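Q: Hi! First time doing this. I have a protein sequence and I read that you can turn it into a structure. Is that right? Here it is:
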Amino acid sequence: MATEHGNAMFTLLMSDLRAKQALYGQYGTPCSLPKAILADGTLANVLVRLQGQLVRWRLAPLALLPHVLNKWLNGCVIGVKTQFGPGLVLIHPVGVVINSAVRGGRNVWIESGVVIGDNRGGVPVIGDDVFIGSGAKVIGGLRLGDGCKVGANAVVTKDVPPGKTALGIPAVWR
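A: Yes, that's right. Below is the predicted 3D structure, encoded as C-alpha cells:
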C-alpha cells in the first residue's frame, strides 16, 4: 500500500517537473530535468506534494512539518488538505497563500504573491490549464474555468468562464 502511494507521489512530482519544463519552453528557454529540479519553486512543490501524501496516509498531524518548512524556506502558506492535479507549478512561491479547502485541476501555474482563499465558507475551484499571475487574489466560492488566465494583481470574486482572462480590481473577464 505504501509503495502505491509513494509511486503516486513520484508520478505527481514528475508531472509537476514536466509542466515546469513546458513553462520554460514557452519562453524559448530549453529546460533540462536537472534545471527544473533546481529552479525556484520546485522545493515548494515537493513539500506541497509531501504534505498531501501524508494527509492521504491519514497522518495529517505530520503534514504540518512540510507545511511549516514551506513557510520558513519558501515564504508560502499552502493548506495541508489543498489538492491539485498533476502539473502544478509554483513558479515563484514567495507570498503564495492557498486555503486548505482549495481544489485545483491539472496544469495549474501560480506566480508569486497569489492568494487563493475562503470567503464565508466558499473556496475557489480551479479548472485545468489555468495560469494565475503575480499578486492575484482569487477569493470565495467561485470557479476558474479550464484554460483561463488571471492577470497580475487582479482580484477575482466571481466565476471566470473557460478560456477567458480576468483583469483588474474587481476583475472582469474578456
